[in-house]
Amino acid sequence: xTAIVAGALLAPWITxxxxxxxxxxxxxxxxxxxSRAHVLGTDTVGxxxxxxxxxxxxxxxxxxxxxxxVATPIGVIVGLLAGYLGGWREMALMRVTDVFLSIPPLVLxxxxxxxxxxxxxxxxxxxxVMWWPWYARLTYNVTRQVATEGYVTAAEVVGASTFHIVFRxxxxxxxxxxxxxxxxxxGFVILLGSSLSFLGLxxxxxxxxxxxxxxxxxxxxxxxxxxxxxxxxxxxxxxxGFNLVGDGVSDLLDVER
Length: 257
What we know:
Blueprint: H1 2-9, H2 11-14, H3 49-85, H4 87-101, H5 105-113, H6 120-146, H7 150-157, H8 162-198, H9 210-218, H10 226-253
């Protein structure tokens, strides 16, 4: 996983054909199978697939980080307030959350992108909108358990404010499951982003993206198999990698799942 992240960050300096990340046409090198010059082969216009996979990883990691940076705080705040305040506030916040959770994630993202122009920024918006409810539900469940602990009761007795109790007493004790879920979700967010690009609703050509590369390569199966297989393997590796990291974080923080 470290090698993938490092390769993505250093792509402009370590890739053999960095200019192939853009709108480049090299007819002489078009549709070449894997070779010493092009380890993963070239696409139908002669661009190096290894270079484009490395640059696609950069966008995938950016998508995952931005989506979780937006969705996690929203979901955590909703879950904290619903779990601690209770009453009609809990009912209102969690029913809205349940409405979002009742819609399949990909369907909701497609519905949102149906009103927006397909690009990376709008894909981030769509995925963020459908991802925060999972954090709201997780934080709500943990908050309901933590809110009955003695230190929370003691803070209430001494007159601590709701802000102090929620964000200084309860939130730190919700951190372990939230961090674990973020680590696991990073791979799934990348997978969903690739799915949107595969459908033509994410990153647009000529910008390299794993999903769009698989979609383009699928047109030429089985003859030019490397066009779809290597980007597909790249998606598999990054999703599996973050899942293994998430399992490691879960064991480290001793989180029950």
